[in-house]
Specification:
The chain is an alpha+beta fold and 281 residues long. The protein is 36% helix and 22% strand. The protein is elongated and about 60 Å long. It is a single-pass type I membrane protein.
Length: 281
């Protein structure tokens, strides 16, 4: 059966300012459904029993989002030989009305980004939706799927904010439950595990998220990491300065370099035309 191979199709704008990391607790309403990442596997055969099972599964997931922030289902109505497995989850403190809206949005984006995929996942800011043809329910997965890092803290690790970050992240690993909120000083952090994990597997996932966040985001002021079965965010509520070596700066530099290269090509081309015209006289 086709395996889910995560293909990052689109990304949220890279945050290079620490102030942008104030969203996690007081998130704006229009940010609930902001896109983070999506992944698709190979396509199933149209009209197959598996397609019918997937359609039944997705319908069950969306309907369940009307009264729950987490649910998982296995659909084998059309054929027990080709079951479809899936789940959805919203952030634990999300109102049900917003959860339902988020899952509906995730399903709509899944349909456009991964049409006829045998397996797919869509992560939005406050919810995610996943299904596949091989059961992943209850199985730990600490694979890093997506990261987003802010600009580096001025002063590197000597910066006070990184000491507070470590304390805030430590409060998450010491906590229990699938949804965890912690903080230290003006730094706050949040983590959530998928509802199908055991308490031990959830703690392992959060600990792995902390380690991987520090490894991939280094001195960044604010970061998000999404693992296979949990995610973690930390942000500063203070105007901490950073060197702003973020993706947005690199993108701007790339545009400038591209324009300069284009200008050089045009100058060389016009020079060639001028010389060709002179030699023809």
């Amino acid at each position: 059966m086709p395996q889910l191979s995560l293909l990052f199709l689109f990304f949220l704008p890279f945050i290079s300012s620490s102030d942008d990391y104030k969203y996690s607790i007081t998130i704006k309403k229009d940010d609930y459904n902001s896109f983070v990442y999506a992944g698709c596997s190979l396509k199933y055969t149209p009209g197959s029993p598996y397609q019918l099972n997937v359609e039944s599964l997705l319908t069950s997931l969306v309907n369940a989002a009307d009264f729950s922030t987490y649910a998982n289902f296995t659909s084998s109505t059309a054929s027990a030989a080709a079951p479809a497995y899936g789940l959805f989850q919203c952030r634990a403190d999300l109102p049900l009305s917003n959860c339902f809206s988020c899952i509906r949005s995730a399903l709509n984006q899944l349909s456009s980004l991964c049409p006829d995929a045998a397996g797919a996942t869509v992560q939005l800011r406050s919810c995610f939706l996943r299904y596949g043809n091989e059961s992943f329910l209850g199985k730990p997965d600490n694979t890093l799927l997506y990261k987003r890092c802010g600009g580096d803290a001025s002063g590197g690790y000597a910066s006070d904010v990184l000491g507070l970050r470590d304390a805030a992240l430590g409060s998450l690993t010491a906590a229990r439950g699938s949804y965890r909120v912690g903080g230290a000083g003006y730094v706050q952090a949040m983590a959530q595990c998928v509802g199908d994990l055991s308490a031990e597997a959830c703690s392992d996932c959060v600990e792995s998220a902390v380690v991987q966040l520090k490894a991939v985001c280094g001195f960044a002021v604010g970061a998000d990491v999404y693992l296979g079965k949990c995610y973690l965010q930390w942000w500063s509520n203070s105007g901490v300065s950073s060197s702003r070596h973020g993706h947005g700066d690199r993108k701007t530099l790339g545009i400038v370099i591209g324009l300069m290269v284009g200008l050089v090509v045009i100058i060389v081309f016009l020079s060639f035309i001028r010389r060709a015209g002179s030699s023809g006289k």
